[in-house]
Amino acid sequence: MTEVKMKLNGETRSASVPPETTLLKMLRESFNLTGAKLGCDVGDCGACTVLVDGMSVNACLMLANQVDGREVLTIEGLATVEYLHPVQEAFETFASLQCGFCGPGVIMSAKALLDENPDPTIPEIRDALSGNLCRCTGYTKMIEAIQDAARILRAKEHA
Amino acid sequence: MRGFKVVEARDANHAVALLAELAPSVKVLAGGTDLLVDFKHAPHAPEVVLDITRAEDLKGVSMTDAGLRIGALATHTDIMRSPLVRESLPALVDAAHTIGAVQTRNLGTLGGNLVTCVPSMDSGPTLVALEARVTVAGPGGRRELPLTEFFVGPRKTVLKPDELLVDIIIPKKNVGKPTDFLKFGLRKGQALALVNVASSLWVDPKKTFVEPRIALGAVAPTVIRAPEAEAYLEGKKITPEAMSEAGRIAAGEARPISDFRASAQYRRDLIAVLTRRTLENACARVQDVRPGGSK
After folding, report:
1. Which tens digit of pLDDT belongs to each residue from B5-35?
2. Does pLDDT of B295 surpass 70?
3. Domains in chain A, ordered, with CATH?
């Protein structure tokens, strides 16, 4: 077994897992964080997207042990009890999701984009979402929501 | 995934020592974007996985006496964000940008892309057009060889089970060389190249080609140079006709296959067009480069 200790959604957490355990499996099964989804399991669909040290990654393509000593942020760490993250709020306002399976991954990709680029163009947003497959929506309303969230976050920054 | 043991390397020398001890029943884990996918589908898992992701000396991009050194563990995102690369060899940024998607570029490494050695690798052509060299470490020490000699065939390199790719070096004489990379895939994101091409060149005051280098991907068992097209261009006046002719020659030098993505003939047509365009784009970049960079 491997001991993994990390900062998970702001709290120090640890787990003991077999060495071949992926980060995704540990999140879902050791911590019951089921927001990141098991989709393709080969890094194509992006449903398992989480942030490790602020960078978006496919949780299905990392071993749990690789996040030892690092910071992991999942969709569950984005909202507080009172407030949704502006990206989540915008996805609700614009009805950006239908079935919702891809949603946590898409929103984490959007969060990583906006952390780095507060005013992305539409091509930049499309590029940032190219690792997240959605078979319901056609992405249009996601892009509108991300633009709106970017506006709100920029306004907050200046306030 | 089937069970395996994981050992972690502190640095490159530690990794080489562990490889000597564990080879051949060991697999090296870098970005994991290919390796973990293979494990999920393979009937047998390896006994031991050597995780090198914490070996800091295998990361980073720096300028050395030999040239631009890119650590084998530099991710595609590291390359895209490196001020050194962006300034001196923007074609490497373009090539890195065409790989996978953000999440896979954040994990996947340059060394991993070369070691996996699929013919359509997007890192290969630009490096080959810049005559990159690689450093390999093993029980007998380190050796350096041209990248073209590192590639052996589809998914096969010269690396022995107890050897490790350490870094990739673009020789000093080619740092700043005008270069362009183009990839043609069936989608913009997450698509394998049907063909990818890179061209590098200097231009002398008489407006003729100096040291043109053309590299083709996905059209032979490994990334290849197009020596006949290069020889045709050397010393020739820069004209649209010369660049088109070089494209036609390059198309004849490749050995593309037909598969479910495209026919061999379509790939040949793509080589001709992409070669011409990369030459045109590289010429257009000449003004961006400081004078005196050429010999």
Report:
1. 999 999 999 999 999 999 999 999 999 999 9
2. no
3. 2-77 (3.10.20.30), 86-158 (1.10.150.120)
Give the pairing of strands B133-138 and B164-171. antiparallel
What's the longest Cα–Cα distance across chain B? 64
Q: What is the mean pLDDT of residues A39-58?
A: 98
Chain A, window 119-148: residues with a beta carbon less than 8 angstroms from a chain B beta carbon: 127-128, 130-132
Instruction: Give A92→chain B minimum CA distance, Å.
Output: 24
**Alpha-carbon distance B160 to B163, whole Å?**
5
Residue B241, pLDDT > 70, answer yes
CATH number of B179-286, picked from 3.30.390.50, 3.40.50.11270, 3.30.450.20, 3.20.20.70: 3.30.390.50
Structure token digits, residue B26: 């060991």
Going from the C-alpha of A101 to that of each of A41, A61, A69, A97, A133, the distances in angstroms are 14, 19, 29, 9, 10
Which residue of B29, B77, B103 is in closest CB contact with A58?
B103
What does CATH list as the number for B60-174?
3.30.465.10
B108 min Cα distance to partner chain A (Å): 10
Q: CA torsion, points B166, B91, B240, B263, in degrees to nearest 10? A: 70
Which of A21, A130, A133, A139 to mutate: most B Cβ within 10 Å? A130
pTM score: 0.95
- Here the ipTM equals 0.97
pLDDT tens across B154-209, in order? 999 999 999 999 999 999 999 999 999 999 999 888 899 999 999 999 999 999 99
The Cα–Cα gap between B214 and B25 comes to: 38
DSSP helix/strand/coil, A126: helix
